[in-house]
Design brief:
BirA Bifunctional Protein, domain 2; globular; alpha+beta; 9 helices; five-stranded antiparallel β-sheet
Length: about 220
């Protein structure tokens, strides 16, 4: 079994957190490519086969730009924090019809002290949320089966969404603004041989959840 990630990845991200400037990053860009970008792209390539077995509708794209790996550069246009770089590495394996981060997808997050795996829809638009909420109401047992045993997270409304019964048995799920599940891991596990299989197992365990969400928004799973 291959260990795609090494402690060097987390060492680089720790150093970047302490030196989050363009000057430092440019001086260490080759280190970023060697210790962060290349291992992540190799992991993405390795995940393509198990992902196709989970669902052929989701994509593992190992291109260094425009693929499954997120850019290291932060969008600082609307942020008070003007730090130019993210201090984590991440990849999203989104639906082939997805155009951005808000599409259905599986997710991997690597950060010093915070490693986790996720699946679902993050910050979907209003029409997408309405379709999912309607699917929950139309098939409550299907939703319960799909989400059973998963650790759901993300943001929620404080009140029932407009048009939905505040006393509905699924009201807490209907109030969700994010439809995502998470599984925590750690740096040691991420750097161990076979982590791609661990990640695949998490994605497989979330397959019914992803199927429900994907089909609720009119896409093929």
């Amino acid at each position: 079994m291959i260990d795609h990630f090494k402690p060097d990845l987390f060492d680089f991200l720790n150093d970047l957190k302490r030196n989050n400037t363009r000057e430092w990053f440019q001086a260490n860009k080759e280190r970023y490519r060697r210790d962060v970008q290349e291992p992540m792209l190799e992991f993405i390539s390795a995940f393509a086969e198990p992902l196709s077995e989970i669902s052929p509708s989701f994509v593992a794209n190992p291109k260094p730009s425009g693929g499954s790996m997120f850019r290291i550069y932060r969008d600082v246009r609307f942020s008070r924090d003007k730090s130019p770089y993210k201090t984590h590495a991440a990849a999203q394996f989104r639906h082939r019809e997805g155009r951005d981060v808000h599409a259905p997808g599986f997710y991997l997050h690597l950060e010093p002290g915070r490693v986790f795996m996720g699946a679902g829809l993050w910050h979907p638009d209003g029409a997408t949320l309405a379709a999912i909420r309607s699917a929950m109401v139309d098939d409550p047992e299907g939703w319960r089966r799909a989400s059973d045993g998963l650790s759901l997270g993300g943001e929620s409304l404080k009140r029932a969404p407009r048009g939905f019964d505040p006393d509905h048995p699924l009201i807490e799920d209907l109030k969700r603004k994010d439809l995502v599940c998470f599984a925590d891991s750690d740096e040691a596990a991420a750097c161990a041989p076979g982590f791609v299989d661990v990640f695949a197992a998490h994605c497989r365990s979330a397959s019914d959840f992803m199927r429900f969400l994907t089909e609720a928004v009119g896409l093929e799973y």
